[in-house]
TrEMBL record:
Residues 1-29 form the signal peptide. It catalyses: Acts on substrates that are at least partially unfolded. The cleavage site P1 residue is normally between a pair of hydrophobic residues, such as Val-|-Val. GO terms for molecular function: serine-type endopeptidase activity. Belongs to the peptidase S1C family. It comes from the Bacteria. Residues 266-357, 397-479 form the PDZ domain. GO terms for biological process: proteolysis. The keyword Signal applies. It comes from Hoeflea halophila. It holds the Pfam family PDZ_2. This is Probable periplasmic serine endoprotease DegP-like. The active site is at residues 118, 148, 222. It is found in: Periplasm. NCBIfam families: degP_htrA_DO.
Length: 491
């Protein structure tokens, strides 16, 4: 299981419901809406679920083991002496750390098994234990830490049992599900529950979209399957919320709608090849939506464009709000990275944006996310010619502003490629301070209009007030050029 409060997937009251007497059982549990027994279903699936055992050799740095004395007169004194004598001496020593998890076979002929990345991460040896007691060594085909998935391969010596991957996007809250796994190393264990929620973000990675279930899951269940009542895998059990490490009825599974593409890529390439748009984004708050003239807060606000990326041709610009990508709605900022990553590299997609209050559709050809780090690093280090000398400072909305010149760049260590109006001081009691605006920040745009002098800022603020706006939308550049949007009250 993961070494956090979130562990592997969750709760047992539904199993107790199945054991209750008919006299006290709720009407829905006696009807066709819930399974009276899952024995036949479980019997056909247990052989496909495996126990995954891993070991890792870790050096102890040559430190001697502390000697624990045996009780006076103990008959085990000789054993204690020999035990610790064998562990003394100079030089580094290795020790073996073992862990347990679960997995399931998706391709019996090829010997392909799916599990969690954290189950096998760092392992030197991986062994797969089957329900009939047989064991096979496994090799790692590929792993993805962002979705916590891994694909293993064994060489079958006899026919294996496989299970199909189903469609998690059609499940409903309240649907019955069954989890099979290896809790606490006990072997194949079946629990039943319902879908408690969908689309959960537990801040474990950039593509969080978990299924939440109350099917009891504990340590060792990580990587095991979550089945629908047709015997199809609709989730890979990954995490639980648990103060004690045991099930409290809140667990999470990676949905197959997210996992299938990752599994296919790991099988084909041994790595992921995700689509990449090449933008930096931030949430659209109610204040930002009001400043942009939008009906409500939705979409992902483009705070910057990566130099050399797929949209570094003006197709998408800072200040645009992406509300739809390749036919999929972007209701919140966190939706965009997931739908982009699920798209094939090189695919041409339609992106619906709001630019200066107008909805537009632009065509974008996606790059590869795995190639983005180098470009993003270079983007932060670019240089351009210096600007002219500064004009006198002015005070606006609790900020003291000056035109950016050589002296200002040196004083605040501002990159040469940043252009705009530098903030030299911020009133600690102002609305700007409340938004964590700091000296050294540079105002690039106000209400999506470029500003180059403090007088430009004054004119834009005055125009917004005349239009009845309550907030000013500022595009700010950090000292290294990273952009962000903030709204400042003008009351």
């Amino acid at each position: 299981m993961r070494p956090v409060r979130f562990r592997a997937v969750t709760a047992a009251f539904a199993a107790a419901m199945l054991l209750a007497s008919p006299a006290v059982m709720p009407a829905y549990a006696q009807s066709n809406n819930g399974p009276a027994s899952v024995a036949d279903l479980a019997e056909g699936l247990l052989d496909a679920v495996v126990n995954i055992s891993t070991s890792q050799n870790i050096g102890d740095g040559g430190r001697a083991q502390p000697r624990m004395p045996a009780p006076d007169g103990s008959p085990f004194q000789d054993f204690f002496d020999e035990f610790f004598r064998d562990r003394q001496g100079d030089g580094p020593r290795n020790r073996k750390v073992s862990s347990l998890g679960s997995g399931f076979v998706i391709d019996a002929e090829e010997g392909i098994i799916v599990t969690n990345n954290h189950v096998i991460d760092g392992a030197d040896d991986i062994e797969v234990n089957f329900a009939d007691g047989s064991k096979l060594k496994a090799e790692l085909v590929g792993a993805d830490s962002k979705t916590d998935l891994a694909v293993l391969k064994v060489e079958p010596v006899k026919p294996l049992t496989e299970v199909p991957l189903g469609k998690s996007d059609v499940i409903r809250i309240g649907d019955w599900v069954m989890a099979i796994g290896n809790p606490f190393g006990l072997g194949g264990t079946v629990t039943v529950g319902i879908i408690s929620a969908r689309g959960r973000d537990i801040n474990s990675g950039p593509y969080d979209n978990f299924i939440q279930t109350d099917a009891a899951i504990n340590r060792g269940n990580s990587g095991g399957p979550l089945f629908n009542m047709n015997g199809e895998v609709i989730g890979i059990n990954t995490a639980i919320i648990s103060p004690s490490g045991g099930s409290i009825g809140i667990g999470f599974a990676v949905p197959t709608e997210l996992a299938v593409n990752v599994i296919d890529q790991l099988r084909e390439f041994g790595e992921t090849r995700r689509g990449w748009l090449g933008v930096r984004i931030q949430p659209v708050t109610d204040e930002i939506a009001e400043s942009l003239g939008m009906d409500g807060a939705k979409g992902a606000l483009v705070a910057g464009v990566i130099r050399g990326g797929p949209v570094d041709d003006g197709t998408i610009e800072p200040g645009d709000v992406i509300i739809r990508f390749d036919g999929k709605d972007v209701d919140a900022m966190r939706d965009l990275p997931r739908v982009v990553a699920e798209s094939p590299v090189g695919k041409a997609v339609d992106v619906v944006i709001i630019r200066k209050g107008e909805e537009q559709t632009v065509k974008v050809t996606l790059g590869r996310l795995e190639d983005s780090d180098q470009l993003a690093s270079a983007d932060a280090d670019g240089t351009d010619p210096d600007l002219d000398e500064a004009l006198e400072t002015v005070d606006v909305l609790g900020m003291t502003l000056a035109e950016l010149n050589d002296e200002g760049r040196q004083e605040f260590a501002i990159s040469d490629d940043v252009e705009g109006v530098v903030i030299t001081a911020v009133d600690p009691d102002s609305a700007a301070a409340d938004k964590r605006i700091e000296p050294g920040d540079v105002i690039v745009e106000i209400a999506q209009e470029t500003v180059m002098t403090p007088q430009d800022v004054e004119e834009r603020i005055a125009a917004l007030k005349q239009d009845g706006r309550r907030n000013a939308l500022l595009m700010l550049a950090g000292r290294t050029g990273e952009l962000r949007f903030v709204t400042v009250r003008m009351d």
